[in-house]
Amino acid sequence: MTKSLSAAVTLFIVALATPGAAVRFPDPAQDIRSAVGEQRAVFAGGCFWGVEGVFERLKGVSNVVSGFAGGSKASAHYEIVSTVMTGHAESVEITYDPKQITYGQLLKVFFAVAHDPTELNRQGPDEGTQYRSAIFYGTTEEKAVADAYIRQLNDAKLFRRGIVTQVTPLNGFYAAEAYHQHFLDRNPTHPYIVYNDLPKIDRLKEMFPQLVNDRYPDARRRE
Fold it and tell me: Can you give the residue range of the structural domain that contains 101?
């Protein structure tokens, strides 16, 4: 990850101008209604610190893990993934209760708040395929809902550019090193977090207040 202050400022400016960030996002026309019991979803949207922080704050989400998907278990280590030779993407595994939040609602937050789905193989100053936008589906239902929602958003022209998010099968998710977990809340004054990720939390609260778990601690209060 690029963690210089100047790069962070660049991403902050990009984040403020994210296409669709200020418009009302539609609910997915297609969703999964038959899921029973605890479910898991795996998304990739650039640096996992901020993506993890966004999804941790949702009602119905019981756990979020930063990690890697798209490559082998043997190469699922940050320093190796950073070589851009492993096929992995920095990802998050979201454990959620479908009675409280649906897969489609998670996708809505993913596209509207968690990252810019029109950036190809990068997010702001972070470049490389490990920062690609991707949905790793575990079932055919997840694939169908993800594909349909991407078409819906593209047809609605909510973004200045087309969505480049990959929809690909999940062949394994591997947790990242311990120091990456819950990084946003443990390091709220880190320049990268301040300029890139806390604005995502603000947008989440502004756009989807009904989905936010108010009991979750606010990172800004720890500054």
Answer: 5-208
Catalytic residue among 41, 47, 65, 193: 47
Q: Is residue 214 part of a domain?
A: no
pLDDT-flagged residues of the chain (< 70): 1-23, 216-223
Number of domains in the chain: 1
Give the integer Cα–Cα distance in Å for 181 and 53: 10
Residue 64 sits in a domain of what CATH number?
Answer: 3.30.1060.10
Q: What is the DSSP string of 179-201?
A: GGTTHHHH-TTSHHIIIIIHHHH
Which distant-in-sequence residues (6+ apart) come within 8 Å of 68 by Cβ? 76, 81, 86, 88, 89, 90, 91, 130, 173, 174, 176
Gap between the terminal Cα atoms of the chain: 23
Q: Residue 67 in 3-state DSSP?
A: strand
Catalytic residue status for 47: yes
Strand partners of residue 66: 92
Give pLDDT tens digits for 13-53: 343 334 444 458 899 999 998 888 999 999 999 999 999 99
Calculate the CA 140 to chain-centre distance: 21
